[in-house]
Amino acid sequence: MTRTEQPTGSRTAPRGRVLISGASIAGPALAFWLNRYGYAVTVVEKAAAIRSGGYPIDVRGTALHVVEKMGILPRLRDAHIDLRRITFLEENGDEVTSLHPHAVTGGVAGRDLEVRRGDLTDALYTAVRDDVEFLFNDSIDTLHTSEDGVEVVFQSGGSRTFDLVFGADGMHSRTREMVFGPEDRFHRDLGYCFAIFTMRNTLGLSHETVMWNSPGRAAAVYAVGDDDEVHAFLNFAPSELPPDIFGNPESQRKLLVSTFADAGWEIPGILKALRASDDIFFDTVGQIHMPLWSNGRVAVLGDAAYAPSFLTGQGTSLALVGSYMLAGSLVGRDHAAGFAAYERATRDFVTLNQNLVGEGGATLFPTTQQALEQRNERLRKLTAMPVAEPRPAHSALVLPDFGDL
């Protein structure tokens, strides 16, 4: 376990001691707001440090107001990628059309942000590291809740008692599993698998994405700048998956190579890079739907509670908004009333954004030849200029002003 120094602020009587599992986006954002409202916050993270780098993520609509309130909006504006076009290709490599990304995503030029994931996580960590205790290289082993608190035993062997525990540990949340039950109760499979990895920028791309499609398959290369390295993305609709696919990079490579073996364009070069990659991330495409986001003194947020899938482009924004709403809902309330208020105020916004998944799937990954041809025809009719207004779901929640204690 790697421990950061505990904060030595002037508060003598915190509202309560809370533990957050996960230090990606939802966790540090929640830590920021809970610390603001007077809690003594500890964040436990199984990784050795905050993860840097990573693929591009979007901050849109209501979430922009959250990062503005946190004071990190100027830093994120400086880190904005400014992706300039996305080019769609036929199966034979011919161009379907080239568009500004906002014409596809519903974003607004000059307002919405796209940044490297690591730029956001670094900004969040910097905003809280002096006020919050971080436990790296550790995780929750067991927890036991009672009327008076939550006794947590860590993988490192230590144990502590907290007033509240929050699961911000992602779609495959261990916290959610311990408190609410196995993932399959809440996971909604969307019928795809995907892999992301880095490779050399052999295509000479700059501030752009190129996406190739055939029915049920897609390959894309993302260039977030003028770097020598780009992110490669492979997506497909499997009939079935080998039983050993998860946690087995070699099995993942074999499946991806066989799935795309007959593909043209630049796919052979992408597969060659895949074979040599040491940073492959492989998973199914899915969502998390929970009837309740809290149980006793434990609550979940972000992907652990309501993962929308990357097909919506709203995972990061939901995590940021959820952290603000959860922490603020506890102001002036006990945990039971606060958790209930969090759900009442946030669930409709979550549902609207999760429902965007149909638009994303139809645009990015048509599974039949007819659907692909229809998609291509729709794309050709789109203007190459950014859309004037965002999708209503992105800004469907007006942030309450919870104030300070």
Mean pLDDT: 91
Q: DSSP helix count? A: 13
* Rg (C-alpha, Å): 21 Å
Structure summary, number of beta strands? 19
Main-sheet strand order equals 1-8-3-2-12-19-18
Major sheet size, sense and barrel closure: 7 strands, mixed
Helix content: 25-40%
What proportion strand?
Answer: 25-35%
Which structural category do the helix and sheet elements fall into? alpha/beta
Distance between the termini: 33 Å
Low confidence ranges: none
Shape type: globular
Describe the overall structure.
The chain is built from 13 helices and 19 strands. It is α/β, with parallel strands linked by helices. The strands form four sheets. It has a seven-stranded mixed β-sheet, with helices on both faces. Strands 6-5-14-15-16-13-17 form a seven-stranded mixed β-sheet, with helices on both faces. Strands 9-10-11 form a three-stranded antiparallel β-sheet. Helix 2 packs across helix 10 (315-329). It starts with a strand and ends in a 24-residue tail after the last helix. The mean pLDDT is 91.
List the helices and strands and how they pair.
Blueprint: E1 2-3, E2 17-21, H1 26-36, E3 40-45, E4 56-59, H2 62-70, H3 73-79, E5 85-89, E6 95-99, H4 102-105, E7 113-116, H5 117-128, E8 133-136, E9 140-145, E10 150-154, E11 159-162, E12 164-167, H6 174-180, E13 187-200, E14 208-214, E15 217-223, E16 229-236, H7 249-259, H8 267-276, E17 281-288, E18 294-295, E19 298-300, H9 303-306, H10 315-329, H11 335-354, H12 357-364, H13 369-381
Parallel strand pairs: 2-3, 2-12, 3-8, 5-14, 12-19
Antiparallel strand pairs: 1-8, 4-7, 5-6, 9-10, 10-11, 13-16, 13-17, 14-15, 15-16, 18-19
